[in-house]
Amino acid sequence: VQSTGSHHMPHTQLYNGSVVRGMSGPPLNELNLELPLYIGSVPNFTESSRDSGVAFGLIGAIQRLIVNGQSWTGLGMQGSRVGRYQGPPCPASTNPCLNRGICLPSLNTFSCKCADGFYGDQCQLSAAGEKPVRFNGDTFLEYAFNLISGKRQRNRRRTNFE
């Protein structure tokens, strides 16, 4: 949901759907948020206007909140009875990500964060064996080895590893 507007002409857009425009006449010419902004529900329905028609809270998920162009993080930090979302496209009973992959919902689709040793859209491929590796400047390979011998010659050092 995206809500924008100025003075007495707000607009609201759900997902990437059509924009709904509204208008308020005098004396209602501004949006005043001196009270807390509740998302999903309210602690007590007596705090909301009876004219709003709100009788129960949101059943669903909120993935991202943008206020004044800034994305808010840590959405569940100050919530009450907020649980981890379980449902399409990432139901807990049938994880679409294989091999201990973690399903990350993104609107009506998902991506998988694969466990070490696996890759692919659904973590279905094993990275074991003779596979090429890619370095991006932050990655490295570490090998344990035994030093057999090391000789220092003039401006050179020769080291043999096992």
TrEMBL record:
Cited PROSITE patterns: EGF_1 (PS00022), EGF_2 (PS01186), EGF_3 (PS50026)
Signal listed as a keyword: yes
UniProt-recorded Gene Ontology molecular function terms: calcium ion binding
Disulfide bonds: 114-123
Protein's UniProt keywords contain Repressor: no
Limits of the EGF-like domain: 86-124
Keywords: Disulfide bond, EGF-like domain, Repeat, Signal
GO CC aspect terms: membrane
Name by which UniProt lists this protein: EGF-like domain-containing protein
Organism, scientific name: Graphocephala atropunctata
